[in-house]
Design goal:
The chain is mostly helical and 406 residues long. Helices cover 79% and strands 0% of the residues. The chain has one domain: Up-down Bundle (Growth Hormone, Chain: A). It is built from 13 helices and no strands. Helix 1 packs antiparallel against helix 6. The radius of gyration is 20 Å and the shape is globular. The two termini are 16 Å apart.
């Protein structure tokens, strides 16, 4: 793969991070508070888990297809126009339309349709943001920029949950996100315009070499496959933790205000994640060690999930959340650097990174299938989080196969 040579500046990195914040706020504010509250109101105590699983699973299934397709479209836009930004414009418009539909939905089908549009739309800018890292960031900066990409995800989750909780879990949260998301995404659009634009055909011959992409260019490398598996398994543990956290706190821990408790746990977990990610990302560039950091993050995450499985009080949950925050922070510090370092060519970066992003969205389909039978059985939530710990250990084993990654 052709590697970018010029270092990116702090303003460009900030713009990329703000774009990630926007997308993750629009995903996780609904996932952790708005959708559970909405499905509880629509489905009632007897049907809320199944309805939430249907909404989240359907949206994630759409995301499985949308992200690589958006990535392919962005590759073609870059080849023809020298920019990926048309995908940001169209995807953001679709996502905002979904948020506005969720604002007014009062039935299961309308909620499913709204969440499908949110997932379909915002996977467009997310695919572009990942591809821009491969386009613009040189190897010696990928630990730092990749960790800030992860920090942007964390800040986005916290921001989305804070927005949702600030309106008491009401649907007004969708309106706030519909305004904030395009505003934050505009930063990368401005930064992209300020950056040098590569001409699709500098000689004016009408024959752009980047438009001639062989089918073999889409073939993933061995390291890419193991990096994909690592990302999938770690995100599956995260989905298992997050999707039913609201109901766990309500049913098992018995907190009087589950929404506020979710916000507290989210802040504790993700602030620690952000600190660990920012620190570990810089060290991974300096020490040339990425897979060891990822393995440590996976094993620590397993320990946090075991702690959560044994928790029945809020202090115990917060202690487990702190451990989970450290583990997740170590993983996301090197995740993007590992994935981008496993690509074979820059001409298909958007497509292959879109396929890599399936490893982020597919767990949202798989997690309900694992969770619903467990949480509705006698084994309950302890069994669910115990299974999550086993998955995290499997993720750690994947790092042993990343021999071509530093």
């Amino acid at each position: 793969m052709t590697r970018p040579a010029d270092r990116v500046g702090p303003l460009w990195i900030l713009a990329l991070t703000l774009g990630v914040v926007a997308v993750f706020a629009s995903w996780f504010g609904p996932l952790q508070i708005l959708l559970p509250v909405q499905t509880d109101r629509i489905g009632g105590p007897g049907g809320r888990e199944a309805l939430l699983g249907l909404v989240v699973g359907t949206g994630a299934a759409v995301a499985l297809v949308a992200n690589p397709v958006w990535g392919l479209v962005s590759d073609r836009c870059r080849a023809r126009l020298g920019t990926r930004m048309p995908v940001v414009y169209v995807g953001t418009a679709i996502g905002v339309a979904g948020q506005l539909l969720l604002l007014t939905s009062d039935s299961g089908p309308a909620t499913v349709a709204g969440w499908v549009l949110v997932q379909l739309g915002f996977n467009g800018p997310f695919a572009v943001l990942a591809a821009l890292m491969a386009d613009r960031v040189p190897e010696q900066q990928r630990g730092v920029v990749g960790s800030l990409f992860g920090v942007g995800q964390i800040v986005g989750v916290i921001s989305g949950v804070a927005v949702a909780e600030s309106v008491g879990g009401g649907t007004t949260g969708y309106l706030v996100l519909a305004v904030l998301t395009p505003a934050l995404l505009s930063a990368i659009v401005v930064a992209g315009r300020a950056a040098p634009v590569v001409s699709p055909d500098p000689a004016g011959s009408g024959d752009d070499p980047r438009s001639r992409i062989a089918l073999t260019d889409f073939r993933p490398t061995r390291e890419y496959c193991w990096a994909w598996a690592l990302r999938f398994l770690m995100n599956l543990t995260n989905a298992i933790l997050l999707i039913y956290l609201f109901f766990f706190l309500d049913s098992v821990v018995g907190v009087p205000d589950p929404g506020n408790a979710v916000l507290m746990i989210t802040v504790v977990t993700l602030v620690l994640s952000a600190v660990c990610a920012a620190t570990a990302g810089a060290f991974s560039d300096r020490l040339h060690r990425r897979r060891e950091i990822a393995a440590a993050g996976a094993l620590i995450t397993a320990g946090g999930l075991i702690g959560l499985a044994a928790s029945s009080t809020m202090p115990a949950v917060l202690a487990a959340a702190a451990v989970l925050g450290v583990g997740w922070g170590l993983f996301i510090a090197v995740d993007m650097a590992i994935i981008t370092g496993s690509l074979a060519t820059s001409g298909t970066a958007g497509t292959l990174l879109g396929m890599a992003n399936i490893a982020t969205s597919l767990p949202q389909v798989v997690a309900p299938a694992i969770a619903v039978p467990l949480v509705t059985s006698a084994a309950g939530y302890p069994a669910l989080y115990g299974v999550g710990a086993g998955i995290a250990v499997a993720a750690a084993l994947c790092t042993l196969q990343l021999r071509g990654v530093r």
